[in-house]
Write a structure and sequence with these properties.
- By secondary structure, this protein is of the alpha+beta class.
- It is 42% helix and 14% strand.
- The strands form 4 sheets. It has a 4-stranded antiparallel beta sheet.
- Strand 10 and strand 11 form a beta hairpin.
Length: 307
């Protein structure tokens, strides 16, 4: 502030016990978000008619903040800007971004900028960019905003208008954040990164298992519809029935089973055939005779011959 690099912020209200969401570990403190920042600005206002792939500078918008954490910088539009705008609205690594206007479900999305491309990236006016001291890990603040407790507290300061929901700066700067000791912040960030990587591995394993399960169900059900005789059908059905409760556990697998049952029904493979049953040709003759009788009685009209 003495150097004139940032402006002096307005004093924020003292924190009361009623505002605190839960008891913190020893050495931690509840601190208002506005007290943690060195500076905070909403971004550059550029409407859709001022965005084009032909313009010079990349433009980071609220949809580039992912719904469940992190950001996607692989797909950005471009805008033009003058020198002062570039100086004020260029993103830097370690910037903390907060989505101030969106639908009620998505407003308040956050991320920490990492791995920016070498070219200039400007950010949108629906995003508040905050920069912190080197003594504050922006990743930890990001975790707080994305946590269930943080989300619950954010929900209380959302303001709905006709078409959009907003979180205003005044309310956001008064928002309480739990702050650990400096070294503990980095230990927590490292541990979360480690565990999130494990979660990603588990998710990939689950997706691979789900894909393999779906292929297995499709194959086994296919053996039923492709059976050449009753013996073949019974063999395939026996194999499925032995693992029925394991195979049909998902909505997709149950839907596939329903479709297979309908297909088997119309193929005549669902029940055994009785040689004593009346042939379909005889059934057709009886239908035609009944129809002719109704025509003669004037109850239905005679249908035109089909070509």
């Amino acid at each position: 502030m003495a150097e004139g690099t940032i402006k002096k912020s307005k004093p924020l209200a003292e924190i009361t016990d009623d505002e605190k969401s839960f008891e913190l570990p020893v050495g931690w403190e509840w601190i208002r978000f506005g007290c943690l920042q060195f500076d905070a600005y909403t971004g550059l206002d550029r409407g859709k008619n001022q965005q084009s792939e032909d313009f010079k500078y990349l433009y980071f918008k609220m949809n580039n903040i992912l719904n469940y954490g992190g950001c996607d910088i692989s797909n950005m539009v471009r805008v033009d800007a003058d020198y002062n705008e570039i100086n004020k609205f260029s993103l830097r690594n370690r910037d903390f971004l907060f989505n101030t206007r969106n639908s009620r479900e998505l407003v308040g999305k956050t991320c920490v900028i990492k791995d920016l491309p070498e070219e200039i990236v400007l950010y949108n006016n629906n995003i508040l960019r905050s920069q912190f001291s080197e003594l504050m890990a922006p990743e930890f603040i990001d975790y707080w905003f994305r946590s269930s407790s943080g989300n619950h507290a954010l929900d209380k300061i959302k303001s709905n208008t006709t078409n959009v929901c907003a979180i205003y700066q005044g309310n956001l700067f008064n928002f309480l954040c739990p702050v650990p000791l400096f070294n503990e912040q980095h230990r927590i960030v490292a541990k979360v990164d480690e565990l999130m990587a494990l979660c990603d591995q588990l998710e990939n394993q689950h997706n691979n298992a789900a894909e393999a399960h779906e292929k297995l169900v499709t194959h086994l059900l296919g053996t039923l519809t492709q059976s050449q005789n009753a013996e073949d059908f019974n063999t395939h059905w026996q194999r499925i029935s032995e693992h029925f409760n394991t195979l049909f556990t998902t909505e997709a697998s149950i839907d596939a089973l329903k479709q297979t049952l309908l297909q088997l029904a119309v193929m005549g493979k669902l029940v055994p055939q009785d040689p004593n049953d009346e042939p379909a040709s005889e059934l057709l003759k009886r239908i035609q005779a009944e129809k002719a009788k109704l025509v003669a009685e004037g109850k239905i009209k005679k249908s035109k011959p089909r070509r």
